[in-house]
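Exercise 7b. Backbone tokens:
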């Protein structure tokens, strides 16, 4: 790998880190905001879901933008806009837009905007990987870049709770947004434009991609994975602090562990997928890692609610999210393979399906918990992950000839 490629991968990793930091810090601030504005868990679930709605709806158009304007340009615009919307979150409270429209509608509107700017991120990162890295390294690069999501989620409970303790949640959101906008400018100034490396797509291209049975199963399977993961993104902090009644300091510390496991195990998934694909072929390599990872993730989440000792509970939750993260690499590698020249559009379509599943989790989990208990909400997540396993029994992720 050249120095320029290493720099590009490093910045892709950093964009992944800051994106997940931006989207998860609301869950860290949520208990304080819910008490300040007298919001119920169901009302906060509406705010969480606003991000998911725009993020999901605009995922496929975001992938198309990457194919048309180049991943470097789209990533710069996405990171800059997401940073601005993060910095504006305090204006959704009271005083602010919340005084005019209500806190929930105002916060939901700002989160909707954040989702819109975040939507092109991972399709564009996948496209950037495809056009800058040799095929033999792409799975490992996916593992590194996607591990940034785990690191962003891991540092957000400790770092953001510390910032909130010193500066309050309003100033803390402003600082997070400023850092994201600064990173966007560094990316724009230092990474070459990749336009022309891939022909652009369009509606006909999307129809052609969706005609591929393998991609349709990939979309369905990724919906199951995102449902599983988004339980952690939106409700882990609340579950540990409010349901398991851990003190605030312990909640921030223990909420870091599952995301640290994500950051550590994502590259392992990429390494395993690369090695197995080289030894046994792409189909066997990617399928083996995806099925094994999802099976282990599901088992760990089923076991977690019955554990009373805190360290054991957090260990099982960490393994559950870590194994689920390992399954991400086969999905993204398969999307690039199946998309070929339209890698951005293929990644966008898959991530749209993923986030349709993910959009359900923030709302459905507390509804199930209110009726049947929080253990039932976690068991449902484990059951949904099994759908991802079934999908992989129908997927052939090998690259298509001529692509």
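Sequence design result:
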């Amino acid at each position: 790998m050249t120095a320029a490629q290493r720099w590009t991968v490093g910045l892709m990793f950093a964009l992944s880190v800051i994106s997940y930091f931006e989207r998860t810090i609301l869950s860290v601030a949520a208990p304080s905001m819910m008490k300040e504005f007298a919001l119920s868990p169901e009302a906060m679930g509406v705010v969480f879901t606003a991000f998911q709605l725009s993020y999901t709806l605009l995922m496929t158009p975001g992938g198309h933008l990457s194919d048309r304007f180049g991943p470097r340009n789209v990533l710069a615009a996405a990171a800059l806009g997401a940073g601005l919307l993060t910095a504006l979150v305090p204006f959704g409270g009271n005083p602010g837009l919340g005084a005019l429209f209500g806190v929930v509608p105002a916060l939901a509107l700002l989160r909707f905007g954040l989702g819109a700017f975040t939507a092109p991120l991972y399709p564009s990162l996948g496209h950037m990987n495809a056009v800058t890295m040799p095929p033999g390294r792409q799975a490992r690069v996916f593992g590194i870049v996607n591990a940034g999501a785990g690191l962003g989620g891991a540092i957000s409970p400790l770092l953001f709770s510390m910032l909130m303790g010193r500066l309050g949640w309003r100033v803390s959101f402003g600082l997070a947004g400023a850092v994201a906008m600064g990173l966007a400018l560094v990316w724009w100034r230092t990474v070459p434009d990749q336009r022309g490396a891939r022909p652009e797509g369009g509606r006909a291209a999307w129809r052609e991609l969706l005609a591929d049975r393998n991609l349709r199963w990939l979309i369905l399977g990724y919906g199951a994975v995102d449902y599983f993961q988004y339980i952690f993104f939106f409700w882990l902090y609340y579950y540990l602090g409010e349901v398991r009644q851990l003190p605030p300091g312990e909640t921030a510390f223990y909420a870091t562990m599952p995301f640290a496991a994500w950051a550590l195990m994502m590259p392992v998934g990429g390494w395993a997928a690369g090695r197995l694909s080289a030894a046994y072929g792409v189909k066997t390599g990617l399928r083996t890692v995806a099925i094994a990872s999802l099976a282990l993730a599901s088992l760990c989440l089923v076991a977690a609610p019955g554990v009373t000792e805190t360290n054991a509970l957090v260990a099982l939750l960490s393994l559950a999210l870590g194994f689920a993260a390992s399954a991400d690499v086969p999905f993204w590698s398969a999307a690039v393979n199946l998309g070929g020249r339209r890698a951005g559009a293929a990644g966008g379509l898959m991530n749209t399906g993923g986030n349709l599943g993910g959009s359900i989790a923030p709302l459905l989990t507390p509804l199930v918990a209110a009726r049947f208990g929080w253990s039932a909400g976690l068991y449902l997540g484990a059951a949904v992950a099994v759908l991802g396993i079934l999908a992989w029994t129908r997927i052939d992720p090998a690259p298509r000839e001529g692509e």
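Instructor comment: The chain is about 85% helix and 0% strand. The domain at 3-190+202-392 is CATH 1.20.1250.20 (Growth Hormone; Chain: A;).
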